[in-house]
Amino acid sequence: MNDEPSARDPIAEDARIDALEARLKAAREREEERNRPSGTASVGADENSRLASKVLSDLIGGIGGGALVGWVIDRFAGTSPWGLLVVMFLGIIVAFRNIIRISSRPPD
After folding, report:
1. H-type alpha helices, the chain
2. How far apart are CA 20 and CA 78, in angstroms?
3. How many Å apart are CA 83 and CA 69, to the nearest integer?
4. How far, in Å, CA of 100 to CA of 108, rounded?
5. Which helix (H) or strand (E) holds 78?
6. What is the pLDDT along the chain (108 residues), one digit of tens a residue?
7. Which whole-number Å values give the CA distances from 11 to 26, 29, 34, 96, in the listed order?
8. Contacting residues for 69 by C-beta, under 8 A, at least 6 apart
9. Long-range contacts from 66-69, C-beta under 8 angstroms, 24+ separation
C-alpha cells in the first residue's frame, strides 16, 4: 500500500544507534539490580534495632540505677536530696560515656 519504508527501518541499520540501545539496556539492568531489595537489608535493620535497644537500656539503667543507689544513700545517711542528685548525675555521665563508646565503635 505504502512503498515508503517506515521511519524505524533506517534507524535499525545505524550501528551507533544499536550500540546506544545496547548500552541503555545494560544500564537499565544494572540499575534494576542495584535497586532490587536484598536479604542483607533486614540484617542491617536488626543490627540497628539491637544498637538502639542497647543505647536505651544504658540510658535508662544509668539514670534509674543512679537514682536508686542515691536514694538508698540518702535514706541511710540522711543527706537528702544530695546523695540522690550526685549519684544520679554520675549515673547519667556513665550512661553517656557508654553511648559515646557504642557510637564510636566501627561497624562490623
Report:
1. 8-13, 15-35, 40-77, 82-104
2. 84
3. 8
4. 17
5. none
6. 555 555 555 555 678 888 899 999 999 999 988 888 765 555 567 888 898 999 999 999 999 999 999 999 999 999 889 999 999 999 999 999 999 998 888 776
7. 19, 23, 31, 66
8. 87, 91
9. 66/90, 66/91, 66/92, 66/94, 67/91
Distance between CA atoms of 52 and 41, rounded to whole angstroms? Answer: 17
Residues in the chain: 108
What are φ and ψ of residue 91, in 5° steps? -65, -40
- What single letter denotes the amino acid at residue 23? R
How many whole angstroms from its chain centre is CA 73? 40
Domain extents in the chain: 7-36, 42-103
E strand or H helix that includes residue 108 = none
The C-alpha cell of 54 is what? 542497647
